[in-house]
Amino acid sequence: MARIKKTLLGSDIPRELVYTPNSILDFDYDKDLGNPGSAPFTRGIHRTMYQGKEFTCRQLTGHGLPEDTNKKMKFMLDNGATGLSILFDIPTIQMYDSDHKYSFGQVGLSGVCIDSIEDMHELFRDIKIDETTISLVTHYPSNTAILFAMFLAYADEIGVHWEKLRGSVQNDTTLEELVRSGIDYLKPGDCFRIQCDNIEFIRKNVPRWNVITLNGYNLREFGTSSITESAVAITNGIATIEALKIRGMDIDFIASRISFFWSASNDFFEEVARLRAVRRLWYKIIKFRFNAKDERSTWMRCHVQTSGGSLVQEEPLNNIVRASYQALAAVLGGAQSLHVDSYDEAYSIPTKEAALVSLRTQQIIQEETGITEVVDPLGGSYYVESLTNEIERRIVEEIETIESQGGYLAMIESGGLQRQISDYFYNQQKDIESGKISIVAQNKYKSKEKLNPISTFQHSKDTENKQVEKLYNLRLNRDNEKVIKSLKALGEDCKRGVNIFQSCIECAKARCTEGEMFEVFKKSLGLWVTPSFW
Description:
By secondary structure, this protein is of the alpha/beta class.
């Protein structure tokens, strides 16, 4: 008899006690599995997978001033990191300058503070941006239009051609409208339009850059299952492709630079099977719904981050074990790049020591375990194949529900997705409090001993003052007539409905600040009040 084991951020899929050939009676090797590097890519997008190309070790890095993060990035690269992932502080993510009243007490606290192109110069000083893959964790389309424009303007100013740049931006409406805990929201239609503007410009001008990272991770960590995480990201992808096709873009040109960002939580086999299922499903959608001709366009390329929501303050060293198993699931599922959360992140951003343990976790998986020697080693397991099929079926079911209610944007505008996520989070919290979901050392096997505290990251008290002083000097010394002119041009492009990205670059080169550019968005496009469903 099947039973449901409740797990954190799990999908409540019933599991049999044992799986046999009868569990996959209609299984067809070529149609359902195939060989690695061949359709439907269940077993991975490359024939030799990690033997041919190791997964990228891409640890999140960001704190304090740009020069502080610059030192941390160099430390990670010196210790074997193969990519950079830049985390921004809350004011930067919410698009307020560091001297704004809403930024008080938050500057540099949870990431690096970036206010202008001058900060980009400090952030990447002496780092070869044309030789390192870089993920800018920009979250929102509006923030992507600002921060990535600054990055490209910076590349121009140091003489690096855009075609040499490799990396990704998030650029996801889901994050801006569903996950964001901000004050000012752009209307979903305008936000989605900026998302598409960014994609159109980047795809045409920065050919090796991933134009969007369809983000399931933050949505799931906000409180939902892997099924909803996958379905929302895919419906966003579908809506995006349809909108860009209206703009005259070819499916193969668009899809070949779309990537995904997934969470890996505690249900080990579910996490493995979900990556396999969503890779197969994305292939089917791109191949048969959109008639892609280029096989590369059908690849579901993904970055996976271990679950921040699973980290607890009680006995924090246990978080190393949690993150290690989650990382292992990501590798067995065929991820292209990986971030392992650090054991101290339930308290603060990682210390240098904790971040190094996370990087070493990935390197141990790559170098010591033999896991990467065989492609898709769990392929053919009665259990894994049955679970892969069931997860794909459930994702399709949820996609059909979203599309039957008007599609991705309509579900955001109506509050339907917000309600679904809220209900899931509420019910999960009840299950944690009742003990249905076990969290070791928190609600089960609680220790009576008082353990020694761990070291946590200590922020510099001078960060905010130093950044505010930088802003003061920037505004004092820049060409403010040029600033006014470039901001006016950006506002006109917003109102006329033309692609705004080139205007954002001109604003960045004029030394406009992030907050000034966001003010133009708000005044030109208007604000949205999120629907209330209580």
